[in-house]
Amino acid sequence: MKRVFNFGAGPAMLPLAVMEKAQAEFLNYQNMGASIIEISHRSKEFDEVINSCDALITELAGVPSNYKILYVHGGAQMQFSAIPLNIINRNPSKKASFSLTGTWAEKASKEAGRYGNPINISSSADKNFNYIPAYDADALDPESSYLHIVSNNTLFGTRWHDFPDTGDIPLVADMTSEFMSRKIDISKFGIVFAGLQKNLGPAGLAVVIIREDLLDHALPETPNLLNYQTYAKEHSLANTNNTFAIYMMSLVMQWLKDQGGVEKMEGINNAKAKILYDAIDSSEFYLGAAHPDHRSIMNVTFNLANNDLLPAFLSQAESQGLYALKGHRVVGGARASIYNAMPVAGCQALADFMKNFEKNNA
Ligand code: PMP
């Protein structure tokens, strides 16, 4: 079996060692004669899984003791509803601020409008979201219950390098496409959340890290299973949670620890991204889509100067085991998603392919 280098944006490539471990113990978890997906979420074996996942996240991300780690169903977009339901009521004006850096920020802002009053304090829509607008503290309404940002914009290939200082107003960050890929100071945030399907595990579940003082503001109509307090009180097991996703995440976190942790991984991720950005910048044949100052190290977006060559570029890449490079329809072109599980060799193979394709088609 030859596995491809999978550049898909998510669900994304997971570390092979993790997949092999899951496969090896799938039918007979810890000699129980049963699979991890066949046993109770309240069993002592699953309890060990979720506790170890908590401990690994705490260690790897440096989660301070006044934060709770929650595993919330519905993936990342579900948190676009859960967050306003839980904290938009911090201020009676029910205002929440948003920086519009792409589709996911726009969707989150729109969803908050169901429960309160979103204010879009900045936007990069004027240039199809190819940059991160400067943060202007004066534009932040002091009555905002929070400021929501998308720290890494998966579709457009931009990221916030530094985060806004919002003072007493909690900063909420959608880190779906970059959580655990670079060192982040969690204490600067009220809530950090991420869908699992890029750097963490399978789709359909989100990890939410929330400062404890934000847990008791939920609107009365908040569904019990979207109330973060329910998750905090019952260790994310008020319902039959997605035990398999939590188990897979615990394996991915152990793998990340074995690789040397987040800081080590950040160094590797910087090197991987540099291989691709150098390939783009050293040629007139390729055009980077994101402003160079705001480039993501997880999603590398680019176009071919001659867009007519794109179908051939994508199909030849795929035939060489470089899979899922098509850009999102709102940006076009190509996108290489290079999450933690993508090895340096995958980026090198893509850069080599790009050079060859240019030679044959320029
Ligand atoms: N936020 C970001 C930054 C994303 O990249 C995505 C998915 N690509 C989402 C939210 C939506 O995730 P989900 O499909 O889990 O709702």
Description:
With 362 residues, this protein is an alpha/beta fold. The chain folds into 2 domains: 16-258, Type I PLP-dependent aspartate aminotransferase-like (Major domain) (Aspartate Aminotransferase, domain 2); 261-361, Alpha-Beta Complex (Aspartate Aminotransferase, domain 1). 33% of the residues lie in helices and 18% in strands. It contains 9 helices and 14 strands. It has helices at 16-24, 44-61, 75-87, 103-112, 228-233, 243-258, 261-281, 310-319, 344-361; strands at residues 5-6, 67-73, 95-100, 117-123, 144-150, 152-153, 158-159, 171-174, 191-195, 205-211, 286-288, 299-304, 322-323, 334-337. The strands form 4 sheets. It has a 7-stranded mixed beta sheet with strand order 2-10-9-8-5-3-4, with helices on both faces. The protein has a 3-stranded antiparallel beta sheet with strand order 11-12-14, with helices on one face. α4 (103-112) links the parallel β3 (95-100) and β4 (117-123). α1 crosses α6 (243-258), α2 (44-61) packs across α6 (243-258) and α3 runs parallel beside α4. The two termini are 34 Å apart. The relative contact order is 0.17. The mean pLDDT is 98. The site of 4'-deoxy-4'-aminopyridoxal-5'-phosphate has 13 residues, from α3.
